[in-house]
Each structure stands twice: as C-alpha cells, then as structure tokens.
Amino acid sequence: MHCLPAVAVLLILGLLCGCVDTATVHEWCYNGDVCGPSAWITKPFGSCNGTRQSPIDISTDRAQTDQNLSQFSFSDYEDKHIMKEIVNTRRTVKVILNDSVEITGGGLQDSYHAIEFHLHWGNLHSVPGSEHKMDGKHFPMELHIVHFKKHYNYTLAMADPTGIAVLGFLIEATDDKDTPLSWKLLTSKLDDISHNVTSAHLNLSLSLDDLLSGVNRSKFYRYPGSLTTPPCQESVLWTIFEEKIHVSKDLIDLFAKRLVHYPKAAVNITNIYRPVQPLNSRTILASPGTKAGPLLTTGNVGGAPRLSVPSTWLLVVTTAGLSFLR
Ligand SMILES: *[C@@H]1O[C@H](CO)[C@@H](O)[C@H](O)[C@H]1NC(C)=O
Ligand SMILES: *[C@@H]1O[C@H](CO)[C@@H](O)[C@H](O)[C@H]1NC(C)=O
Ligand SMILES: *[C@@H]1O[C@H](CO)[C@@H](O)[C@H](O)[C@H]1NC(C)=O
Ligand SMILES: *[C@@H]1O[C@H](CO)[C@@H](O)[C@H](O)[C@H]1NC(C)=O
Ligand SMILES: *[C@@H]1O[C@H](CO)[C@@H](O)[C@H](O)[C@H]1NC(C)=O
Ligand SMILES: *[C@@H]1O[C@H](CO)[C@@H](O)[C@H](O)[C@H]1NC(C)=O
Ligand SMILES: *[C@@H]1O[C@H](CO)[C@@H](O)[C@H](O)[C@H]1NC(C)=O
Ligand SMILES: *[C@@H]1O[C@H](CO)[C@@H](O)[C@H](O)[C@H]1NC(C)=O
Ligand SMILES: [Zn+2]
How far apart are CA 223 and CA 209, in angstroms? Predict the structure, then answer.
C-alpha cells in the first residue's frame, strides 16, 4: 500500500483472511454446521451462494487452450526482502508483502500489485488440504498469492469483477526430509506466531521465486471466481498452475502441528479449506503448453470474462467496509 490509512490496512488484513470479525460478515469458521462452509451460502455471510464461486475442480481435459494466456512478467518476485510480516489470523498463516511486488501479462488486462500470501492445509500431509482440485484430486496444501489491480485499494478491488488476481499453487508432499530450503526457512518462523492472534516481523532472506522453485509458470489455468472465504466476493481472476510445488512431509506437517489458536482452549489450526463449488456456466482456460484440450478457434471464448457490475454493488461493499470502523 502506498499511503493507505490504518483503517484501510485493517480492512485488507481483515476481510481477505477473515481475521477481523464484523457485524456485516458473520463470524465464520471451517468446521461446524453453524459457521462452516455449508452455512456460508446464507445471506449473513455475503456472496457465497453466487454463481462464480471458488474453489473449483480444474478438469484439465475440459479446459480450453487460449493463445492469449501468454507468459507472466513478475516484478520483485526475486527480491529477498519483500516479506515484511507473518500473521496467525486464527484461520490461516499469512505473510504481508511489499507492494513493489507486481505481476503483468499472463492474459491479464492490467497489472496487479501483491498484498499478501497465505496457505490452506488439512491435518498433516496425508489428508486433503488444497482448496482447488485438479482432475478430481486434492493436494495436501495450497499457496495463494493475492494481488490487487494496480492503484486499487481494498474497496475498489472488491467491487471490480477483475479487481483481484490470485496465483494458486498446489503443493505436493515428498519424502525428501527438510526440503526445499526455502520452505524450511519459512516454516522456521511458525513458532513465532503459534499462539493466539499474533504477528511477527520477518527478516528472512527469502523471495517468492524461492518458494515457487521447480514450477514452470508458463503452464496455468484461468477462470473467473471468488474469494474462498466470506464474504466470497466474486472479484477474483484465478490462476492455478499446472505444476506443483514439492515440499517434504515433515515441513507440511508443521503447519497443523505448530499453529494454534485460542477461542477458549488451545486448538490446532487444521482443515482450513473450502470444498469445491459448482463450475456453472464458466469456461476454464488453459495456457498453451498445458496438457489441456484442443485449441480454441479465435473469436471464441475471451480471456477474462466481462461481467457487468450492479450499480448498488460498490455501495454495498463500501457499507460493509465502513462497519469495520465500529
Ligand atoms: C479507495 O479508493 C477510492 C478511490 O480512490 C476512494 O474513494 C475510497 O475512499 C478508498 N477507500 C478506502 C477504504 O481507502
Ligand atoms: C442459493 O442459490 C440457489 C440458486 O439461486 C437457490 O436456489 C438457493 O435457495 C440459495 N440458497 C440459499 C441458502 O440462499
Ligand atoms: C517496498 O516498496 C516500496 C514502494 O513500492 C519501494 O520503494 C521499496 O524499495 C520496496 N522495498 C523492498 C525491500 O523491495
Ligand atoms: C491466548 O488467549 C487465551 C484467551 O484469551 C489466554 O487464556 C491464553 O493465555 C493466551 N495465550 C497466549 C500464549 O498468549
Ligand atoms: C536482519 O538480518 C540481518 C542479517 O541477518 C541483520 O544484520 C539485521 O540486524 C537484521 N535486522 C533486524 C531488524 O533484525
Ligand atoms: C497440535 O498438534 C500437535 C501434533 O499433532 C500435538 O502434539 C499438540 O498437542 C496439538 N495441540 C493442540 C492444542 O491440540
Ligand atoms: C515451461 O513450459 C513451456 C511450455 O510447455 C516450455 O516451452 C518451456 O520450455 C518450459 N520451461 C522450462 C524451464 O522447462
Ligand atoms: C486475444 O487477444 C486479442 C487482442 O486482445 C483479441 O482480439 C482476441 O479476441 C483474443 N482471443 C481470444 C481467444 O480471447
Ligand atoms: Zn486462500
């Protein structure tokens, strides 16, 4: 953020991962009938019953190759000093990124600046933990790097159907103990935030490129979707990469073992992912080079589907935002 007031920063930290509870967005959770994903589709939780919700199952043989999904350009993904703070939000762990980090290309019409990254996991490496599935298969963990359209603040990003670009990476478990070094370094910080809602300053020499090592970032899938936590705003252009990040079982297990929150007593943070949602009428696009289906003939499906924004939407979002002031 360039010079956003503290309130705006709170909004961003709050709604993206739900670490601030509000009157407008109901107290939500991942496990349980009252506040879990099956309850999110009711009104108090926001737009979670919409028609372009996330996550989804990416069926690669039904995806349509689109030549316009060109290579991304990544700015400051190689910078080893852009991770500023690590936060235990009680529902995930997230790392706040410097806003000099940017992406362009990849079939996106605009450039987008990074806000934070966070993770979704299950309960140790042997059970599902990813939000997206690929060809019906869950993975133990998933990394989301969240970007807002350039110059957008939270309010504007949420109100624009293409306001947010999230890069999603599926994480596969390996037997190679303590690897890769980048993930060992990141997980070494989990103990600093293992209790209550806490955050810790980061002074790691670690880049996003380091965390994404081994993934060919020219092979990806694209679809229009939503935030995967309430209020489930339908303002996200999703990119899910075909290749997986490989992280050892012991490092994956640290997330469920070390991260604890305290509603009343200490509870391990586990199974923090939303189940897959209906695709409805959406088309999943694939970049050239993926194992996806036949080429589209030009003039068929566009890169980023254009949806019209109801005129009341901005107002509603703004009002929801204001409730944070209380
Ligand atoms: C976001 O930016 C818009 C346009 O610049 C501005 O009107 C609005 O007040 C900003 N919202 C916040 C929460 O900073
Ligand atoms: C969710 O949306 C569907 C389709 O529009 C509708 O039939 C259903 O009643 C809605 N569910 C809730 C809980 O609002
Ligand atoms: C963080 O972002 C600011 C503003 O974009 C930039 O001036 C600064 O160099 C960045 N810091 C790092 C460590 O990249
Ligand atoms: C966390 O909060 C709970 C409830 O407020 C409190 O009992 C506990 O001592 C706190 N733990 C730590 C490590 O601060
Ligand atoms: C950050 O790490 C560097 C190198 O390890 C060290 O020289 C510096 O004092 C540290 N800064 C803070 C604020 O801890
Ligand atoms: C969290 O998980 C670890 C390892 O499974 C276990 O030793 C620890 O007791 C758990 N903590 C809580 C509060 O359940
Ligand atoms: C990444 O994938 C593309 C498309 O399949 C391929 O052309 C390129 O050589 C790959 N890059 C690397 C470094 O393997
Ligand atoms: C690709 O982009 C060009 C130029 O923006 C556009 O004219 C064309 O329709 C796009 N093709 C597809 C398949 O989206
Ligand atoms: Zn996420």
Answer: 23
